[in-house]
Amino acid sequence: MSEPVLPVLEKLKPPRARGLKRLAYIGVGLVCVTLAVAGALIPGVPTTPWVLLASYCFARSSERLDNWLRGAPVFGKLIADWEKYRGIRRPVKVMAVCTVVTVVTLSITLSGLPVFVKWMIGVWACIGVCTILFVVPTAKPE
User: Which of 8, 20, 138, 46 is CA-nearest to residue 85?
Assistant: First the structure.
């Protein structure tokens, strides 16, 4: 019989940090989760990079927080997709691009902001959309 998968995964886990390094990882991880939640609620603010960074920090500091993040309904799926496929699923990318385009278009057309600020918002939105489309890999599930 072959060796169970769980011991193999245990060998791949990074060693847990101790002392101040552990507290720093936990602190950075919690800040990243906060930024990820903000990104999920505020269009234009990224979510996935913060979730992945939080996962990285929690994997090195706290098994309890790592399990909590991986068990979260939305964030857990992002982490699982990244680990399994090294990318983000196409529907997530489509939703992100549509949300950014919609909110930025409404902001530019309905706000009383100066023209140069509207241009800056548009340029940053284009950079964000291009990053989502061309830099972040698309997961290709079987």
Answer: 138
